[in-house]
Amino acid sequence: TTQIVLARRPQGAVTSDCFRLERPALPALGDNQILVRTLYLSLDPYMRPRMTELRSYTPPFELDQPLTGGAVAEVLESRNPKFAAGNIVTGMLNWATHQVHDGRGLRKVERDAAPLSAHLGILGMPGFTAWHGMLRMGQPKAGETVFVSAATGAVGQLAGQLAKLQGARVVGCAGDDAKCGYATSALGYDACFNHRTETDYGAVLDRLCPDGIDVDFENVGGAIFHAVFARMKNFGRMVMCGAISEYQDSKPQPGPEKMFTIVQRRLRIEGFIVSDHMAGMGAFVTEVGALLKAGKIHHRETVVEGLEQAPTAFIGLLKGENFGKLVVKVG
Ligand code: NDP
To answer: Record's Pfam families (predicted)?
Structure first.
């Protein structure tokens, strides 16, 4: 097999020498084991905190061991009664072209129900994150103003569209003009600003959300989050999904000014980790799968070819080089 291991832990920005490509021989298949060939590998922001030793909500990656992530794979051989050669499975797998696995935590998916990469994006973990965070936590109502940062990313693109379907006015920000154009033309955002060229975040939010913000779907953190916080309306909800702008900081950044705002405006600020809510996954797939089929939801992916490209693509993800859900086509 070809696999990528964690060669060293990053200090500040991730660099390519944090990864090493290896070609070990695979062990023979034991009882209850399966041999799988990876088809698609998901690259996700949460992998960055896992590269450090700091305790996060998922345990750190181990040095000199393959990194792991969400993947779609084909079963090539099986000595496990739950799987047969030819099955397509999804779950956590190594950054590897092939591996021997005990099948635990892998779920079979239909080969033709949706493009296979969709199980890692719009119908997978990021889509479910958007659905749970926006609908169950943010609960936007018709006429309310919703703000989504990283508006066209894997999570943001669905979060914004779901808020639109509830009748809200939706404003986002993204890292270049092409992403902002896609947000307003294809995804239905009412407005989207380029956070790299319009850097007076307070001024641009005052212009695009003149009455304030009812729901913040927070993906980015840092200065954008602070400007949004100051503009939340009474009884506003801040859905704390991520803070990607802070993941590579070697020194923690200070929080927003004037925390008494939370009391004055009766804000609800709530963090969540999607894996705590997996009971809702079935309802999500049914609902969003139907919206997708009916053409009511759009989505976009960046597909990178070849496992050996995964480190560069991952480094790019942390700089905004992906446009939509980032996946690696392995097989
Ligand atoms: P995306 O597809 O949105 O990719 C990351 C995007 O973040 C980049 O494309 C870029 O978009 C933006 N970005 C990167 N660096 C910066 C920066 N320094 N400042 C501002 N923006 C930056 O990733 P996901 O949709 O998978 O994840 C979005 C967020 O959701 C992340 O914070 C992630 O950790 C979080 N998340 C949380 C989960 C949970 O359970 N709580 C589950 C899944 C994701 P742009 O070019 O537009 O700036």
So the answer is: ADH_N_2, ADH_zinc_N
Residues 280, 246, 133, CA angle at the centre, nearest 5°? 20
Ligand 1 in reach of 221 Cβ (< 6 A) = no
Atom index in ligand 1 nearest the CA of residue 326 equals: 2
Q: How far is the CA of 260 from the centre of ligand 1 (A)?
A: 28
Domain ranges of the chain: 3-121+299-329, 125-275
Pocket flag, ligand 1, residue 179 (CB < 6 Å): yes
pLDDT at 29 over 90: yes
Class for the domain spanning 3-121+299-329: alpha beta
pLDDT tens-place string over residues 202-228: 999 999 999 999 999 999 999 999 999
Give residue 321 CA to ligand 1 midpoint distance, Å.
Answer: 11
- Reported as a single tens digit per residue, the pLDDT across 244-279 is 999 999 899 999 999 999 999 999 999 999 999 999
Ligand 1 center from residue 31 Cα (angstroms): 40
ipTM of model: 0.99
In this predicted structure, what is the pLDDT of residue 1?
Answer: 97
Lookup: tokens for 191: 């407005």
Distance 58 CA to ligand 1 centre (A): 17
Q: Which tokens belong to 107?
A: 């779920």
Residue nearest to atom 13 of ligand 1 (CA): 320
Averaged confidence pLDDT in the chain:
97
The domain 125-275 is placed in CATH, from the list 1.10.287.3510, 2.60.40.1180, 3.30.70.60, 3.40.50.720, at 3.40.50.720
**Separation of alpha carbons 4 and 189, rounded Å:** 38
